[in-house]
Amino acid sequence: MKKLIFVILTTIYTTSVLANQPKEWQLGFQEAASQSMREIVNFHNNLLLPVIIAISVFVLFLMIYTCIRFRASRNPIPSKTTHNFAVEILWTLIPCLILIVMAVPSFQILYKQDTIPKAEVTIKAVGYQWYWGYEYPDENIIFESYMIKEEDLKENQPRLLTVDNEIVVPVNKVVKVLITANDVLHAWALPSFGVKRDAVPGRINETWFKAEKIGTYYGQCSELCGIQHAFMPITVRVVSEEEYIKWLSGAKIKFAKEPITENEYKKIASK
Ligand SMILES: [Cu+2]
After folding, report:
1. What are the two backbone dihedrals, phi and then psi, of residue 260, each rounded to the nearest 5 degrees?
2. I need a labelling partner for 230 at 20 to 30 A (CA). Which of 58, 99, 178, 196 fits?
3. Considering the entire predicted model, what is its pTM?
4. Which candidate, 2, 12, 22, 7, places its Cα nearest to that of 219?
5. Ligand 1 mean position to 230 CA, how many Å?
6. Domains of the chain, with CATH numbers?
7. Strand 175-181, strand 205-209: pairing
């Protein structure tokens, strides 16, 4: 009994502390933290799920009905019908109509995600075997982001998802992400933002998100890219505008891409 209470308590506790990462025994999506993820979740919950359940129940009913009604003892002389015009038209038309009904909202969401609003922060993510490299092209910032090994994790840092240098972005700002790779195919994916794009060597893909809540969000490389595919997580820390500016001034010195002059250093440090 004590053990059971402990398990229930730890489940509730971890749920409230780590809100934006996969949870044990999780069903469904991670909590949405952007408008586009909310739309994806609505589409799934209010349209896809009912359609899937209705079709499954209907097919199950047909199978059970056929097994009982047309079993050998009840129906000794089977029908030899091979064609039925009306039924064939129906079982072609109805699935087509269902697909069209699903396609309309689905395309709406897809095209909305594809149109990138004016970006307030731009980040370039480069996939390497096996870590992510990030650049803030407008801020002269470049750094690498490696997973922290299990034995080095601190308290509350999730296993296989925590990195040494995370991306920091301001809350409620449009962040454009330019995605590419340096060696093989990778994919930059963040479930809470509803974002997933392939990282292709020699090509730049674009995506965007606007995080609505302050917090830490976790994602992973989502393209089988080699032996350490599972060990190149993505961590995004969403912070307030002031905190972001503070982080920027530190990062501009720590992660400077082009060497900065003494004057520039003083200017950044004074902020
Ligand atoms: Cu990868």
Report:
1. -100, 150
2. 178
3. 0.80
4. 22
5. 8
6. 35-114 (1.10.287.90), 121-270 (2.60.40.420)
7. antiparallel
Place of tokens 């595919």: 229
Q: Dihedral (C-alpha) 99, 105, 110, 111: value to the nearest 10 degrees?
A: 120
Cβ atoms of 199 and 3 closer than 8 Å: no
Q: How far apart are the CA of 47 and the centre of ligand 1, in A?
A: 32
- What is the whole-number distance in angstroms between the Cα of residue 203 and the centre of ligand 1? 15
* Per-residue pLDDT tens over the stretch 58-70: 999 999 999 999 9
pLDDT of residue 2: 58
Burial of 101-121, coded b for 16+ CB within 10 Å and e otherwise, reads eeeeeeeeeeeebeeeeebeb
- 């296989």: which residue's tokens? 160
Rg (CA), the chain: 25
Q: What distance in angstroms lies between residue 149's CA and the mean position of ligand 1's atoms?
A: 17
The per-residue pLDDT for 3 is: 61
Q: How far is the CA of 153 from the centre of ligand 1 (A)?
A: 22
Tokens of 33: 């933290």
- Cα–Cα distance for residue pair 209/258, rounded to 1 Å: 28
From ligand 1's centre to the CA of 130, what distance in Å? 6
Output the pLDDT for position 70: 92
Residue 263: per-residue pLDDT: 77
Below-70 pLDDT ranges, the chain: 1-19, 271
